[in-house]
Task: inverse folding
């Protein structure tokens, strides 16, 4: 969601177009609806011209989200873009496709269901909604348990690592749940299972583990977390469960790390979310939330509506949403199959290895990502006294590359990192080209630093780095015409 602030002065709130001038005599308002209509050709050209200033999605290495699909799937998306998914009775085939996707994904995650049983899950608008639904289920189940035991039920908490995405913070704030975070440390950028279990108490509704950290792509050790939590539950008499946020890794681990135990094979894992629009290979935005069994989703959270036709059970935060991405997800699952996904994920991993080797061989950087996990390369500067990663990524922009730079969460704020995510459409040739362009940037940065006499190594404090980050993003936002993205 973008929160836009329109600051208009005289003359600033108008736009014009060379093409539109064939049809429009006066400039068009920027922040008000025009009084008159304009020809469709002019409207298209005006909008298309401004969109040319956007970055190229294929070169956006900040994003985990799919930026390319096969033309056949593009056609299916276009043909179904006018279908509202909530009209289940009117579009029963689309509803059936969603149910098939839920069951396929549940089996992929080793849910304890038979071949003829129906899995418990739902399609969502990305993993953010999926996490909200999972959190609500845990909260309600915990409340019911505490009420039945005659205990206070007004102070629930959830345990996570400090590396969680903002959607977990949103869940905690929106639904009044205390967020207990395991702090990070230099060299260890995921949740420590032992420290997480130490934070668990009787009011903990669940521990959230991440399969594919946004910061460095690393998979958290869900197996160790499960084993430690089993022991603590046995000692205390509690039954604290686990949720796995597999937004990025859920469509990776089953195919290239099948021996890794992180899913419903572990008894305390009660729900898993995954983003279909990431390595599920579908355009934004579609996500999935799967529960272990019916008992893990309290029935009182499910609504039954009938004013659109037959009885429709629903558990979502929104109402209307497009059908296109669900149909696209079904296309990918049946089109690629297990072996197709496996080939793509292995290729992404191989391309990430090429990029990783190229970055490491330059000698400028310290790698913070791992060989296994989400196919990405995250790294920090060995010496940030002459220039910062924020200046490096800014210089890369002129070659068209969009690369993010950020500082780690507490207690590793002094580490500033840049990260390159490898998706299906990032070829070996692009990886080699990126290495070449990055080398050019580093040589130029060195030459510039030498020219201006920056030789002395001064280790920057967390406050100095934070100030640099703030200044960088304020400048970036200002260039985006006062649009604040959240």
Result:
């Amino acid at each position: 969601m973008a929160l836009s602030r329109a600051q208009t002065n005289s003359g600033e709130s108008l736009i014009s177009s060379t093409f539109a001038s064939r049809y429009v005599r006066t400039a068009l308002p920027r922040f008000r609806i025009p009084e008159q209509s304009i020809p469709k050709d002019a409207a298209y050209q005006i909008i298309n011209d401004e969109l040319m200033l956007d970055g190229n999605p294929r070169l956006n290495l900040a994003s985990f989200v799919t930026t390319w699909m096969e033309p056949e799937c593009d056609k299916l998306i276009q043909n179904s873009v006018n279908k509202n998914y909530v009209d289940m009775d009117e579009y029963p085939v689309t509803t059936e496709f969603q149910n098939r996707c839920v069951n396929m994904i549940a089996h992929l995650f080793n849910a304890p269901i038979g071949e003829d049983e129906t899995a418990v899950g739902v399609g969502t608008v990305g993993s953010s909604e999926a996490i909200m639904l999972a959190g609500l289920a845990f909260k309600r189940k915990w409340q019911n348990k505490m009420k039945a035991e005659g205990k206070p039920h007004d102070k629930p908490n959830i345990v996570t690592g400090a590396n969680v995405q903002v959607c977990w913070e949103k869940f905690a704030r929106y639904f009044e749940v205390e967020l207990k975070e395991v702090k990070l440390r230099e060299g260890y950028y995921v949740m420590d299972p032992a420290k997480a279990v130490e934070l668990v108490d009787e009011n903990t509704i669940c521990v959230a583990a991440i399969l594919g950290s946004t910061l460095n792509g690393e998979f958290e050790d869900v197996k160790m977390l499960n084993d430690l939590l089993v022991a603590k539950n046995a000692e205390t008499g509690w039954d604290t469960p686990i949720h796995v946020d597999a937004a990025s890794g859920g469509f990776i681990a089953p195919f290239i790390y099948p021996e890794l135990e992180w899913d419903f094979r572990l008894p305390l894992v009660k729900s898993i979310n995954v983003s279909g629009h990431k390595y599920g290979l579908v355009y934004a935005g579609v996500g999935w939330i799967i529960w272990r069994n019916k008992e893990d989703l309290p029935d009182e959270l499910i609504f039954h509506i009938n004013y659109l036709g037959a009885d429709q059970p629903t558990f979502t935060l929104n109402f209307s949403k497009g059908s296109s991405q669900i149909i696209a997800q079904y296309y990918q699952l049946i089109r690629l199959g297990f072996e197709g996904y496996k080939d793509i994920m292995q290729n992404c991993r191989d391309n990430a290895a090429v990029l990783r080797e190229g970055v490491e061989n330059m000698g400028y950087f310290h790698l913070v990502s791992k060989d296994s996990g989400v196919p990405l390369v995250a790294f920090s500067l060995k010496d940030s006294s002459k220039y910062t990663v924020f200046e490096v990524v800014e210089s890369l922009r002129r070659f068209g590359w969009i690369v993010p730079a950020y500082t780690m969460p507490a207690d590793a704020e002094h580490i500033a990192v840049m990260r390159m995510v490898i998706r299906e459409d990032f070829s070996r040739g692009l990886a080699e080209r990126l290495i070449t362009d990055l080398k050019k940037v580093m040589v130029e940065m060195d030459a510039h630093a030498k020219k201006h006499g920056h030789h002395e190594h001064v280790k920057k404090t967390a406050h100095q780095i934070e100030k640099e980050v703030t200044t960088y993003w304020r400048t970036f936002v200002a260039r985006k015409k006062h649009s604040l993205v959240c």
